[in-house]
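General statements about sequence and structure are easier to judge against a single worked case. Part of our work consisted of pairing the sequence of a single chain with a tokenised description of its backbone. The amino acid sequence and the backbone structure tokens for this protein are reproduced below.

***
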Amino acid sequence: MRIRNAVYIICFLLIQYLGVFGQQGQWTWMKGDTTFDSPGHYGIQGVADPANNPPALWGANGWVDQQGNFWLFGGSLGWGIYNDLWRYDISLNIWTWVKGPGVPNQHGVYGILGVPADSNLPKYRAGFTTWVDLQGDLWLFGGEDGGGALNDLWRYQISTNQWTWMKV
């Protein structure tokens, strides 16, 4: 019993130590509004602008491309769920609204399975899974649209600026 208690005490002390020293460095506010539930500023689609900011979102997900840019898709802001795609250029500290309708709760355009097209766009969603493949394409799977879970698979090719619905 003493050994078990000693193990618990050591674990407790280790957790306390890591909790105090686990977070090193400093946070730096880079960009974005400081107001609650900000609707963001879209600007002109495809045009980088220092005034651009995505809305204040929860459940959005993102990727980091091979050039180090951060990409953001979807997410919810109280009154709706989005299906906009944004790119953040870290070196310039600028957002670009890349694709999407710019208003919440817009249905996607699935097009033809496996065929990329300019008009293709995933349905609005939050809480999905993302990854980047070896060619640098952005992938997303599933999520939630406010009415239920989604299980569709999409690929976004940065080089062509096109979404492809890949799998049901």
